[in-house]
């Protein structure tokens, strides 16, 4: 089952990336897609993004750098502290984020996967030898 879920995630990522590219969005990596998914609206520091993604700060920084270069994210001063920088979506990044959500919804509807995963399964069984 874990392998099937991993393959399903990969399939979803590939469908999303290909669909975004087809719609004219700058190419993004799976890591950048994951970063976009954990970024909140008010802005997030690179350290917090790394923690949420479960990756190193360097990996998160590289993903941010690529998305800033693509015009999808921007760095702004943190109003609570002048030193850390918050990462936020640009207007184009917000549009891309919305488009990605729409694409994923269509893919989910196509497969009816969400309905299957949201079905109550009851408590996990205890299997004896």
TrEMBL record:
SUPFAM superfamilies linked to this entry: Winged helix' DNA-binding domain (SSF46785)
Domain HTH marR-type: 21-119
InterPro entries per the UniProt record, alphabetical: ArsR-like_HTH (IPR011991), HTH_MarR-typ (IPR000835), MarR/SlyA-like (IPR039422), WH-like_DNA-bd_sf (IPR036388), WH_DNA-bd_sf (IPR036390)
One of the GO biological process terms: response to stress
Pfam families from the UniProt entry: MarR_2
Gene Ontology molecular function, alphabetical: DNA-binding transcription factor activity
CDD domains per UniProt: HTH_ARSR (cd00090)
Name of this protein: MarR family transcriptional regulator
Source species taxonomy: Bacteria, Bacillati, Actinomycetota, Actinomycetes, Kitasatosporales
């Amino acid at each position: 089952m874990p392998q099937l879920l991993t393959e399903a995630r990969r399939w979803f990522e590939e469908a999303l990336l290909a669909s975004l590219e087809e719609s004219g969005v700058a190419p993004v990596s799976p890591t950048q897609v994951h970063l976009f998914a954990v970024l909140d609206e008010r802005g997030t520091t690179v350290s917090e993004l790394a923690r949420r993604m479960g990756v190193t700060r360097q990996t998160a920084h590289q993903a941010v750098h690529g998305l800033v270069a693509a015009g999808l994210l921007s760095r702004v001063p943190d109003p609570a502290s002048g030193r850390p920088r918050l990462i936020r979506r640009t207007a184009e990044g917000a549009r891309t984020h919305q488009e990605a959500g729409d694409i994923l919804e269509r893919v989910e509807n196509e497969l009816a996967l969400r309905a299957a995963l949201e079905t109550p399964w009851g408590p996990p069984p205890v299997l004896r030898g």
